[in-house]
Design brief:
This protein is an all-alpha fold. About 80% of the residues lie in helices and about 0% in strands. The radius of gyration is 40 Å and the shape is elongated.
């Protein structure tokens, strides 16, 4: 009751001060809401920028990881092919020393053609075929797709520029996203090379296994 009386007993001057104070509080509140909204918008913009930057970095890391894996695959294929080539060469030399290639030697003494000689000839042919596939694996296996990629990493694409300055200028003008894209293009080229290498390596291994089996049979029949 005392509170109501005190409110009713306010003078016009007091009411005017009360209204001014209320208006000031409302203005401060609105400014606070506006400032908070602007800070939230700035924070959201920063989050989007950081997310975009992280996505680019993740793509860069993934592209480099794939590129390194493909290079390792090519290295392993060449190493396996060299191992196969060395092995079949040794076996071929051994069976040739046992007379497997005597029918093809001009000055060799005449001998009747038997099933053992057939096995020896087949063994030699299989081993020679395996060695040929091994050489094909080690040789660069480039594809026609490399010409159409327009990349900046593969040496044929680098040499396709008119001069070193032109290549350097094009390389210098790349953004980070474009550089990631170039790595991804080269990953595609390397993947094509890997597929051909490993398909040829499989042929080399199967030919070597056949030649080895026939060589064992040839030696056992002697």
């Amino acid at each position: 009751m005392a509170t109501n009386i005190s409110i009713l007993s306010l003078s016009p001057k007091g009411l005017s001060q009360l209204e001014s104070t209320t208006a000031s509080l409302e203005t401060d509140h609105n400014n606070s809401i506006r400032s908070s909204g602007q800070e939230h918008a700035r924070a959201s913009t920063m989050d989007v920028a950081q997310s975009t930057s992280a996505a680019v970095q993740d793509g860069d890391s993934l592209g480099e990881f794939i590129h390194q894996c493909l290079r390792n695959y090519i290295t392993f294929a060449d190493q396996k092919a060299a191992f196969v080539f060395t092995g079949v060469s040794a076996i071929l030399a051994f069976v040739a020393n046992k007379g497997a290639l005597m029918p093809f030697v001009a000055n060799s003494p005449a001998a009747p053609w038997t099933w053992r000689i057939d096995i020896g000839v087949l063994a030699a042919l299989a081993l020679i075929t395996s060695a040929g596939f091994g050489i094909a694996v080690i040789m660069p296996r480039f594809t026609k797709e490399k010409i159409a990629t327009g990349g900046l990493i593969f040496w044929e694409d680098i040499c396709s520029h008119a001069s070193a300055k032109d290549y350097a200028a094009e390389l210098k003008g790349l953004t980070k996203a474009q550089a990631v894209h170039q790595v991804q293009i080269n990953c595609f080229v390397l993947a094509k090379i890997c597929r051909k290498k490993y398909r040829t390596l499989a042929c080399a291994i199967w030919s070597a296994l056949i030649g080895l089996a026939l060589s064992v049979a040839y030696i056992a029949a002697g």
